[in-house]
Amino acid sequence: MEIATVGGFREVGKNMTAVKIGDEAVILDMGFYLPSLISFEEEGGDRKGITTDGLGKIGAIPDYRVIDAWKQKVKAIALGHCHLDHIGAVPYMSSMFPNAAVFGTPYTLEVLRTMILDEQIKVDNKFKTIQPNASIKVGPNIEIEFISMTHSTLQCTMMAVHTKEGVVLYANDFKFDNYPVVGTKPNIKRLKELGKEGIKALIVESLYAHDERKTPSEKVARELLKDVLLSTENEDNLIVTTSFASHIARLKSIIDFGEKLDRKIVILGRSMQKYILSAENLKLINFSKRAEILGYSRHIKKKLKEIEKQGRSKYLVICTGGQGEPGSVLQRMATNQMPFEFQKEDHIIFCNKVIPAEINIAHRKALEEKLKHKNARLFSNIHVSGHAGREDLRDLIKMTCPEHIIPAHGEQHMLESLGELATELGYDIGRNVHITTDGNIINV
To answer: What is the DSSP string of 349-396?
Structure first.
């Protein structure tokens, strides 16, 4: 068994791993490195006009050259969930693997189709939908099982690659949330069954391996939101909330409490519109009956004029911009690129954490400074993570008992923190814990 650590083994994002057994191989995830894309667009670049080679040169997609010899052997590109750091590179790279179909849960593939349509990219690879907790045989000797898991969007899975040489469990990204606001509980029973049957290798996120906690349930974030929205003096003020666009459960909570406040709910931003409509197309939610959803700039500008004219205290706005990213709705509102002016004590509620990359931290800090100058009230970090803490990772390792552990989805110090945790559980770095980098092949 050969495991190629293509991307995501020196950075948060750009996730891509390949597993080869004999003459068959599968790719697990194929994601963007978003900070590179953001920097490119800040410098005047246009994503719609960039080629695959161009994306490679700016470091926005994985460097697949380590598996160049495997091109014809790849039978499947399997996607664990719909976040762009896991699926964003598929439209640009999948054609390099002509024999590979693209597999994912209904929501993951619906988001990917929307992205391809929006970017006007031609993709020839077939798409094959797999329900959570189902399996698919992708070649004579490889079967992929999609195990239902909780994270921060819909229909997330861990993927178990079953081969004649053993099982590879791919666990990017997850949390163990037994009280999800939307969706089902994690299938911990199946993980324990696989642990008893035997797992050859565990490839697992290490983002918060240093953080000595169990990640709280999404219900905790819902209670934080409830406290801020329903227990704060806000009768005369506009309320603006931000969230990750794909965090459907968080958006549901905001809408629920906005209705309790008897406010008109308006959702602004193209990315939010795309994720919501993808979920509505699959009848997973029905936000359109409860909120006005606007994606295009001309419609957003018109609505903001209405809000100022009709009375800001009647509205609750949900919008993009929690990272302070240029071009997002909140950033444009704060920098007067929209026909809108914040007033004293308008409420700005950040229902997300900053993704830990320097450019994101700088953008968010700049946005908060602008909002403070406008005398808005800021409520930061009304959020719980969608990623496993150290104690969740400990539980995963103990219940699955893998022979080998490959820390993934993190910077060097994050991978090393997961390695330290593994040594606490009896593993040895260099023997059965493999702290590696992008572009390597591990022989298991």
So the answer is: EE-SPPPSSHHHHHHHHHHHHHHHHTT-EEE------SS-BHHHHHHH
Whether the CB-CB separation of 102 and 130 falls below 8 Å is answered with no
pLDDT in tens, 214-232: 999 999 999 999 999 999 9
The residues of the chain that CATH labels 3.60.15.10 are 2-214+386-443
Domain with CATH 3.40.50.10710 in the chain: 218-379
Sequence letter at residue 404: H
Burial class (CB in 10 A: 0-12, 13-18, 19+), 22: middle
Length of the chain: 444
Query: Residues with Cβ < 8 Å from 416, sequence gap 6 or more?
Result: 407, 435
Q: What's the pLDDT tens digit per position in 41-65? A: 777 777 777 889 999 999 999 999 9
* Cα 111 from chain centroid (whole Å): 12
Q: Would you place residue 129 in the very low, low, confident or very high pLDDT band (cuts 50, 70, 90)?
A: very high
**Residue 260: strand, helix, or coil:** helix
Q: Is the pLDDT at 333 greater than 80, yes or no? A: yes
Q: Homologous superfamily of 2-214+386-443 in CATH?
A: Ribonuclease Z/Hydroxyacylglutathione hydrolase-like (3.60.15.10)
Tell whether the model's pLDDT for residue 324 goes beyond 80: yes
Distant-in-sequence, close-in-space partners of 68: CB < 8 Å, separation ≥ 6: none
Mean pLDDT to the nearest integer, 277-288:
95
CA distances from residue 377 to 232, 233, 320 in whole angstroms, order as listed:
11, 11, 18
DSSP string, 14-66: --EEEEEETTEEEEE-----HHHHHHHHHTT--GGG--HHHHHHTT-S--GGG
Q: What is the pLDDT of residue 95?
A: 95
Q: Which CATH class is domain 218-379?
A: alpha beta
pLDDT of res. 18: 98
The pairing of strands 315-319 and 239-242 is: parallel
Stated as kind and residue range, the H or E segment containing 75 is strand 74-78
pTM of the full structure: 0.94
